[in-house]
Design brief:
about 10% helix; Porin; three-stranded mixed beta sheet; 28 strands; mainly beta
Length: about 500
């Protein structure tokens, strides 16, 4: 992880270089012809990326249906499927490429200016290498596993922050099972696809489910603003001399929002911008979802380990959530949907001790409620989310309550505009009304800082050399600047990156 530090504003040194490099590579790609999409699902069904994506990673309506329907194309007849090898009661495609896909993502170069201290520029690639394993061993079962190598995962060791390389299970690793057939065998009513019901073959879904996703799941996968499908990707934290210089840059609506909290199963701080609860990608749980009244209503409910945990279950309780999504106004040129959810977290995190906030105290219950919406009109994609969080005041130590704000909220709005077949422009606004520890009631500091509010504006241009290969040039500006908090310590930053899916 080589780093090159500069004095003053690093953007003045690297800004022109970023732009020139971006335009040079884009000019090379301008004369190349678009290729067929090559990730595993596209290879399997011989489709282009644009069949399921407006532009990766954003899904269009067909892509959402494909995900909801067990990664199966509706009404695909047996003779149109790839050749498969029988392995007892299940079968797999004979071509290995139909099961494997890779994603390489990261900033080739970036520079940040900080409030009241020297700027920093950096060359580091890739930030993430992801390996996807996907299969449909039967029509009613899908397997999806993501392995991830992250170059800069934030760790908290012996009271100090470090950026370390990490390899392991990524955001999702689950089985998806269509429960419609077994429920019908029990005589229970279910919504089924038109072909299964003996009706005419139709390209849309008349209603389906319930579907069960079990394993490491993303509860927000069917939300109007899914956590893991960001065009403007999250940026890792910045650490200097074991000091947390800057919090990770993520959509504020999805972050923890509270300052001073700790993870339930260890002494690590739970940072205010770390996605958590309903918006955690890669939490162990079971998610049920399906549709009613045709395409009109999507329902979901689930149970999670919570506390950003995976296989461990230190809190010995479970979290529960429920959500609804209403899809309206679908046409060839426009669609609109609105979502809402409620998440009940039980013993989900630890409050700081009143006597020493640098150490975790008792377990707390945490509630989260959110609204999201998505409007697509021709070449414009608008989406956003507002999420409100509350910690049970009775779970906080009596001496801590006067120093702790137990409510917080976050707002994220994004607009993506497809300028041409190759260019995508994005603009995102984030606002955070932070909660948590307002002042240190002990003698030591608080990892991650004291309560702060934040707001930032981001702009990005993506150039698609292929449907599955894109360059991006991004600029972030911090609207709330204060050197005392790692949320607001930075002024602005620019980055040049690449996103390859193959």
């Amino acid at each position: 992880m080589p780093k090159y530090q500069t004095q003053g504003n690093p953007l003045r040194r690297c800004g022109a270089t970023l732009v020139m490099l971006f335009l040079a590579v884009a000019a090379v790609g301008w004369f190349t012809t678009p290729a067929m999409a090559i990730p595993a699902w596209a290879r399997k069904h011989n489709l282009q990326c644009s069949t399921c994506h407006t532009r990766p990673p954003r899904l269009n309506r067909f892509g959402e249906q494909f995900h909801e329907m067990n990664f199966m194309i509706p009404n695909t007849s047996e003779e149109k499927r790839p050749e498969r090898q029988q392995l007892g009661p299940v079968s797999l495609e004979q071509q290995l490429g139909n099961h494997l896909a890779f994603r390489v993502l990261g900033n080739l170069a970036q520079g940040f200016e900080f409030k009241g201290r020297s700027g920093r520029s950096e060359i580091s690639f890739p930030n993430e290498l992801e390996i996807f394993i996907a299969a449909n061993p039967t029509d009613d079962i899908a397997v999806f596993v993501e392995l991830e190598n992250e170059l800069k995962e934030l760790e908290f060791n012996a009271g100090e922050f470090e950026l370390e390389q990490h390899f392991g299970l990524g955001h999702e690793a689950f089985l998806m099972i269509n429960l419609a057939k077994p429920l019908r065998r029990l005589g229970l009513p279910t919504m089924v696809h038109g072909a299964e019901a003996g009706g005419m073959v139709h390209s849309s879904i008349l209603g389906h489910g319930p579907m069960l996703m079990i394993g490491l799941v993303d509860p927000s996968t069917n939300f109007s603003f899914p956590t893991a499908r960001q065009v403007m990707t999250s940026l890792p934290a910045d650490v200097e001399n074991e000091e947390l210089l800057r919090l990770p840059i993520t959509p504020y609506a999805f972050g923890g929002k509270f300052f001073g909290l700790y993870k339930a199963n260890e002494n690590d701080p739970l940072l205010a911008t770390t996605p958590t609860l309903y918006n955690t990608a890669g939490a162990l749980g079971a998610d049920f979802h399906g549709r009613l009244f045709g395409n009109l209503l999507l329902y979901q409910f689930g149970v999670m380990n919570g506390a950003n945990e995976r296989s461990s279950d230190a809190n010995e309780k479970k979290d529960y959530y429920a959500g609804l999504r209403l899809d309206l106004g679908e046409s060839n040129f426009a669609r609109f949907n609105i979502s809402g959810f409620a998440y009940w977290g039980n013993d989900t995190a630890r409050a700081p001790r009143a006597s020493d906030p640098s150490r975790p105290g008792r377990l707390i219950d945490w509630r989260r409620y959110g609204l999201g919406a998505n409007l697509t009109w021709r070449w414009l994609d608008l989406y956003g989310a507002y999420v409100w969080d509350k910690i049970n005041d009775e779970d906080l130590p009596v001496l801590l309550r006067p120093h702790f704000d137990n409510t917080a909220s976050g707002l994220t709005l994004e607009a993506d505009f497809l300028l041409s077949n190759k260019w995508l422009a994005s603009l995102r606004y984030d606002s955070l009304d932070g909660g948590g520890l307002m002042e240190s009631s002990g003698a030591t500091g608080v990892p991650g800082g004291l309560r702060a509010n934040g707001a930032m504006l981001g702009a990005q241009a993506r150039y698609y050399m292929r449907q599955n290969v894109s360059l991006y040039l991004r600029y972030q500006y911090n609207l709330e600047q204060d050197e005392e908090s790692p949320l607001t310590s930075w002024v602005h930053g620019a980055m040049l990156g690449i996103d390859l899916d193959f």
